[in-house]
Write a structure and sequence with these properties.
Strand content: 25-35%
Helix content: 25-40%
CATH class of the largest domain: Alpha Beta
Radius of gyration: 33 Å
Number of strands: 12
CATH architecture of the largest domain: 2-Layer Sandwich
Number of helices: 7
Strand order of the largest sheet: 7-8-9-10-12-11
Number of domains: 3
Distance between the termini: 64 Å
CATH superfamily of the largest domain: Threonyl-trna Synthetase, Chain A, domain 2
Largest sheet: 6 strands, mixed
């Protein structure tokens, strides 16, 4: 078995510090060893002997209770498989914790050989990062955080440059405002992130529809964006005779057309959006 779990009563989500304390305490107890005693008991007899601490993972509904006692340490109601002595575990490694419901935390852990394999796997990942960073073991965390923060700054700078480029593209686009609705025509080869940002701007301002073409590459594929009315329903009016819809939704339509740009703009802007 690669991992096991136990549910415990706890007033809040377990922190990393809590996890370390649990692991250290478990190692201390495993090193000393203690017998594991398993018995089936009447519900009330078990309650009289051990109290409500039996129900760390919730109160059972059966009249009988399977009680697992670690001699001198703890007793719990549990239906799982168990060893004869805790020293057979070797050690445990907590993998993660989860909130089952309010007041109950689940601990997922590995024990014995599985814990060793888990620890070795984590160390291999750590060692790989250490070699990539080219630093000593005690400087991995510091160097990683520094590199990560630098990447965040680079990302912010790239986003700023992207916004500036897209704003320039929009400003230099042709505005057609004498048709049935205002339209901006952008004739450029755009990257996916530029198209996404233009779509976001169009959705935010809700003023212009956008027609995007790329005459430099003589492509028949175009894009129509409308933030204020149903784009695909509107473009279907032209489907068959003038255009072929490739993909789309209410906001954006990708289509192909062999019409020249002037005729395409005239066709779109002179047709009512209703």
């Amino acid at each position: 078995m690669d991992e096991s779990r136990i549910d415990i009563t706890h007033f809040s989500k377990l922190t990393d510090e809590d996890v370390e304390k649990i692991e250290n305490r478990c190692l201390e107890l495993i090193s000393k060893g203690a017998k594991i005693i398993v018995r089936n008991m009447e519900w009330y007899s078990a309650l009289d002997k051990f109290g409500f601490s039996l129900f760390q993972g919730g109160v059972p509904l059966d009249s009988k209770l399977r009680v697992v006692e670690i001699d001198g340490i703890d007793a719990e109601g549990c239906g799982g498989t168990h060893l004869d002595n805790i020293n057979a575990l070797g050690f445990i490694k907590i993998i993660r914790t989860e909130t089952v419901q309010e007041g109950i935390q689940r601990i997922i852990f590995a024990a014995g050989e599985a814990a060793l394999m888990r620890t070795q796997k984590v160390y291999r990942s750590f060692r790989s990062i250490q070699l990539d960073l080219g630093v000593e073991e005690d400087r991995v965390d510091e160097t990683f955080r520094k590199t990560f923060n630098q990447l965040i700054e680079v990302k912010k700078q790239l986003e700023t440059l992207l916004k500036a480029r897209v704003n320039d593209i929009i400003k230099s686009s042709r505005k057609i405002e004498d048709g049935s609705f205002p339209l901006r025509h952008i004739d450029a080869s755009l990257k996916e992130e530029e198209l996404k940002l233009i779509s976001k701007i169009a959705s935010s301002e809700k003023k212009y529809a956008y027609l995007i073409t790329n005459s430099d590459q003589n492509e028949s594929k175009k894009l129509f964006i409308s933030p204020s009315f149903d784009a695909i329903q509107f473009m279907r009016k032209f489907e068959g005779k003038y255009i072929r819809i490739l993909n789309g939704n209410k906001f954006m339509v990708e289509f192909s057309s062999n019409l020249d740009t002037a005729k395409l703009i005239s066709m779109i802007t002179n047709r009512s959006k209703e």
